Amino acid sequence: MIKKQAFVFWNLPHTALLFLSIWGVSQTILACLMIERFYGCSYDCDFYVPQKIVFFLAIICFISLIFSFIFAFFSAFKTQQPIVHKVLFLSYLAVVCQVYYIASL
Q: Number of C-alpha atoms within 13 angstroms, CB side, residue 56?
């Protein structure tokens, strides 16, 4: 009888966790910059986005940053490499900046 194992982040290899956290942080920071561009545009812009949608997208980016922070934390705890601690610090700063951005909306 074959038993299927559930997907567990802890069982991922060290490099996969590292790349997952780096990818998540970088993609979410790019998305946050795009959202800020939408928010700064006035009504007469070609790509005007209402503030409610901008706020919703900022919340989605915040949730994505939280998951990236969790991946970076698991990676830092599992690998004990200096680069992983820098990624963990970067993801922490990104979460703090996103909280500040949401509070300023």
A: 5
Reduced to 3 states (helix: H, G, I; strand: E, B; else coil), residue 2 is coil
Q: Dihedral sign, CA of 58, 61, 65, 66?
A: positive
Angstrom distance (rounded) from CA 48 to CA 65: 25
Rounded CA gap, 54 and 41, in Å? 11
Residues 21 and 89 sit within 8 Å (Cβ to Cβ): no
For 32-60, the pLDDT digits (tens) are 777 666 666 666 666 666 778 778 877 88
* Residue type (1 letter), 87: V
Domain definitions of the chain by residue range: 24-104
User: What span, in angstroms and rounded, lies between the C-alpha atoms of 94 and 62?
Assistant: 9
Are 41 and 47 within 8 A, CB to CB? Answer: yes
Structure tokens at 10: 């802890």
CA 60 from chain centre, in angstroms, equals: 9
